[in-house]
């Protein structure tokens, strides 16, 4: 996520808010339009994102601060660990990888995290989004699967062919991305209500064989997330 406005207020946005509040006083529609258009804010790219994992003192207190101070347009998901509700992973859209790296490594940003109850240094991963489901799901778990492939397009062709197998196992595809620093490292996010069954299917002899055909070069690495019960979110 590049310039995601997480815990940061952009001056340009303030200009828009002021104009929106005061624009009705003007009778010149053309000048109002020109004034609005003069405020240039880089939009979220829609295809770059960041995942930030850290521990917090108290999830509910942290969540209130996060929702208050983050940019709604950048938010993708908030997940917790199934074993520890205070181990949080946040996924957000960014404006560019360069801008996101600058923001998230700044001393000011780290200080803000501490003030809002974050107790560990954030682990950051930057992604290029290839696919993202926009329709909500009721499934309460997410299973992340990461592995390196020889060629993304070839892998994706084989992966798409195996959708009936995943559907039968109640695995719902939510997102696909590649690592910003390694476009051959593929990350798939599934929604499921049965993590053990999901892992069993992915590790099955049938899908292992298909992975080999697809050019998967490394063992899959799994990450399990839980959707906090009071959050309805995507992906």
Can you offer a commentary on this structure?
It is a single chain. 35% of the residues lie in helices and 27% in strands. The chain has 9 helices and 8 strands. The protein is globular. An 8-stranded antiparallel β-sheet has the order 2-3-1-4-6-7-5-8, with helices on one face. The chain has a domain at 133-226: Alpha-Beta Plaits, CATH 3.30.70. It has helices at residues 11-22, 29-37, 59-69, 97-104, 107-115, 152-161, 163-168, 195-202, 205-214, and strands at residues 48-55, 75-80, 87-93, 123-132, 141-148, 172-179, 182-192, 221-226. The two termini are 15 Å apart. By secondary structure, it is α+β, with helices and mostly antiparallel strands.
Strand content: 25-35%
**In CATH terms, what is the fold-level topology of the domain at 133-226?**
Alpha-Beta Plaits
Radius of gyration: 20 Å
Uncertain segments: 1-41
Instruction: Give the strand order of the largest sheet, numbering strands 1, 2, ... along the chain.
Output: 2-3-1-4-6-7-5-8
Largest β-sheet summary: 8 strands, antiparallel
Q: Which class of the domain at 133-226 in CATH terms?
A: Alpha Beta
**Mean of residue pLDDT?**
82
Quickly give the CATH architecture of the domain at 133-226: 2-Layer Sandwich
Distance between the termini: 15 Å
- The percentage helix is 25-40%
Order of helices and strands: HHEHEEHHEEHHEEHHE
Dominant shape: globular
Q: Which class best fits the helix and strand makeup?
A: alpha+beta
Q: What is the tally of beta strands?
A: 8
């Amino acid at each position: 996520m590049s310039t995601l406005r997480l815990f940061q207020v952009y001056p340009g946005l303030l200009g828009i808010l002021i104009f929106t509040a005061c624009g009705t006083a003007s009778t010149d529609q053309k000048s109002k339009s020109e004034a609005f258009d003069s405020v240039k804010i880089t939009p979220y790219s829609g295809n770059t994102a960041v995942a930030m994992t850290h521990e917090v003192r108290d999830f509910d207190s942290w969540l209130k601060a996060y929702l208050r101070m983050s940019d709604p347009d950048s938010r993708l998901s908030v997940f917790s660990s199934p074993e520890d509700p205070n181990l949080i992973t946040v996924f957000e859209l960014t404006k560019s990888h360069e801008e996101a790296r600058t923001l998230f490594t700044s001393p000011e940003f780290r200080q803000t995290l501490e003030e809002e109850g974050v107790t560990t240094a954030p682990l950051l991963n930057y992604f290029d989004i290839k696919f993202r489901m926009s329709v909500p799901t009721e499934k309460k778990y997410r299973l992340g699967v990461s592995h390196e492939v020889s060629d993304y397009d070839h892998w994706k062709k084989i992966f798409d062919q195996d959708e009936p197998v995943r559907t039968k196992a109640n695995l719902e595809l939510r997102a696909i991305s590649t690592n910003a620093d390694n476009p051959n490292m593929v990350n798939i996010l599934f929604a499921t209500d049965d993590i053990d069954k999901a892992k069993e299917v992915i590790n099955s002899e049938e899908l292992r064989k298909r992975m080999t055909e697809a050019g998967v070069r490394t063992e899959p690495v799994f990450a399990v997330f839980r959707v906090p019960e009071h959050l309805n979110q995507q992906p």
